[in-house]
Amino acid sequence: MRRGALNSYKETKVTTASQSKLIIMLYDEVIKQIDIAVNAVNRKMPKDVSHNAFVKAQDCISELMVSLDFEKGGDIARNLFALYNFFNRSLLDANNYGNLNKAQDVKSMMVELRSSWIAISGTTEHEMSGDRVGINIAG
Hints:
- By secondary structure, the protein is mainly α.
- The protein has one domain: Four Helix Bundle (Hemerythrin (Met), subunit A) (Up-down Bundle), CATH 1.20.120.340.
- The protein has helices at residues 3-16, 19-42, 47-66, 70-97, 100-121, 125-129.
- It is globular and about 45 Å long.
């Protein structure tokens, strides 16, 4: 598939997705970027590879934070905000100090949250596995 066609496909998937699917897509992207960052550190690749992946993961988490509706979400929204804030701080530490355990912990919790969102959205894992086209946050 040509790059332009793939980008158009991804853009269409994002613009037509439900809010639940967008959240799941953001979780997918965070998980993917953490994997890229950890792999880059373990393979002793140039620092900018892991740095860029950590920053993209943090950008996705920031998108999750701004998407929270505190009026409708109440305590759940406030708890998710605090958790997302913790995730961003943990990824910052992983990026700055090479603490990959923190990155792996965030990934594990994101996988659990992703599963919860799939369950409450009425979407099946099979439906989402075909949608893993990712989201491009600022590059």
